[in-house]
Amino acid sequence: MLLGILVRYPYLTSKDAFPFGDGGLFVEMIYAIKDNNYILPNYVYFNGYEIPFAYPPLGFYLALLSAKIFGLSILQSVQILPVVINLLTIISFVLLASELTRDKVELFLCSGIFSIVLQVYLWTAKGGGISRSPGFLFTVLTLYLFLLYQKQDKILYLILSAIAFGLATASHLEWGLISFASLLVFILFFKRYKTKHDIYSLSIFGIVSLLATIPWWGTVIYKFGVTPFISAWNVAEMDLYQFFEKFFFGTLFRVTIFSTKDYFLPVFGIIGFISACFSKDRILLPIWLLITYIAAPKNSPISGLLPLAILIGIGLRNIDKGLLYLSEKLKINFSQRFQPNISIVYLFVLMFLSIPQLFNKPILPILAPIERTAMEYVKENTTSDAKFIILTPSDWYSADAAEWFPYLAQRQSLTTPQGLEWISAMEFNKIVEQVTILSQMVRNEQSGAELGQLVTYVEDNFSSYDFVAIFANNIESTFGGFLETGNYEVFYRKSDALILRWLKIKNDKRYKTKKSVSFMMRLAGNRKMTGIIKMHVMKIYAQSRVNIFIRLDCV
């Protein structure tokens, strides 16, 4: 617990009363509940869309409750509460691990690793963690209480486990799915459920879980049917190529302490995995890890953190056993008081190298005041129907500026997919694909690898927009080649924020420039497309002059 507090200290003591990372959509949902007298509203209005309120709401009610009790603003509650819940998750994990480890050394190792691994708080300490963090906590409690029931056969533990499972599902659908998959592994591994009494116990578990969650999903199905859930599922699914690609690249084991430093933790996880596969009473752990990957492959390795942390502890312990075996072969005798516990030394070295840095500076980003000021300027100086294209160097899931923009600016962003998963999986995936290309172009522009491609991509793929807002480090007004076309003017500019107004004439497509032609020709050349490029020249007379347009048809 102390390790967890040290690592999360910057997030608990930040002077900036604003959530880390994402959270704009969830803050909008929290206010929607509050404005509806704390009853689930039919819709939440975000980013120009009327979104069915189908999202699991428990975390939002916890945020409202904590804000009320402690006199916090909603933003402060969304900033602090996910971190506090994440600390409680560490305590719950220690209890769970105590039921699955062989000795105190293993328990100490896996608990220490779990406390400092980045992936444990990467998504749960963010503003968006207001739903993820309770889901994680109640998943751990579900499994711990279920293990107690299996070992002690007390019906109270079964009921508490069922309630925890219901709360996990009512917090975050994916953690609910991970809980369910993990429970199946436990049921099959312990092979207890064969008699009528056992089936009766499982029936109680199911009924209690349904009762704990029916106020949410029952209301949603009554209002909207199952359509929102189907749409969200279609967004979450992964094709077989992606599934096996992530699997064979070892994503299950890729946990780190910093963003790019793993200190051999994946190696120890693999050692523990192999070791457990050859142990009859430990085969549960590798099977559990694999099942969590199957249940939630997109979220790996986070989905498998519980078994993985224990496997890393086992892997480290096996290093000690290997050294002891080697010393016996070499006839090196150790006293009873001293045993070669290299694993504990490793953990202390790991803490020595990481804790000072993690204590002093947070890894998770926070939306910069410059970016928030720019969004406030947009809110005060543009019409309510203005549409924006938000460009950042980050992929869609970590583009915090794009996710916060609809809430802070109260304007529509055409490059923010969040929320659309409940309306249209097709539209969601379309925006994700566009943002993937745009974010790479922004990174290329920043590095100088490719210049001036942003404007051509934007103009070729978007038509109904009014502004382009770029949030990146130290950008110049010429960034992306927009001003060079003569179709844009600077609307707002600071060091890390550039907002350009598009000088368009509505319903007039004649803004297309020769740059689009050159872009298409480069694209054709890069793809080595075969065929004939036909050039059609069309004369259009308007305002007493001739406008010549060039259209490329690639056959």
Provide the descriptors you would attach to this structure in a database record.
single chain, 555 residues, alpha/beta, Rossmann fold, five-stranded mixed β-sheet, two-stranded antiparallel sheet, 21 helices, 9 strands, globular, disordered C terminus
Gist?
The chain has 21 helices and 9 strands. It is α/β, with parallel strands linked by helices and 555 residues long.
Topology:
Layout: H1 2-12, H2 24-35, E1 43-46, E2 49-52, H3 58-70, H4 74-98, H5 104-116, H6 118-121, H7 129-152, H8 155-169, H9 173-190, H10 196-224, H11 227-236, H12 240-248, H13 265-277, H14 284-295, H15 305-329, H16 342-360, H17 369-381, E3 387-391, H18 400-409, E4 412-413, H19 425-447, H20 453-461, E5 467-471, E6 488-494, E7 497-502, H21 514-526, E8 533-542, E9 545-554
Parallel strand pairs: 3-4, 3-5
Antiparallel strand pairs: 1-2, 5-7, 6-7, 8-9
Polypeptide structure, described:
The structure is a single chain. By secondary structure, the chain is an alpha/beta fold. It folds into three domains: 2-360, no CATH class; 369-502, 3-Layer(aba) Sandwich (Rossmann fold), CATH 3.40.50; 514-554, no CATH class. Strands 4-3-5-7-6 form a five-stranded mixed β-sheet. A two-stranded antiparallel ribbon has the order 1-2. It has helices at residues 2-12, 24-35, 58-70, 74-98, 104-116, 118-121, 129-152, 155-169, 173-190, 196-224, 227-236, 240-248, 265-277, 284-295, 305-329, 342-360, 369-381, 400-409, 425-447, 453-461, 514-526, and strands at 43-46, 49-52, 387-391, 412-413, 467-471, 488-494, 497-502, 533-542, 545-554. The longest helix has 29 residues, at 196-224.
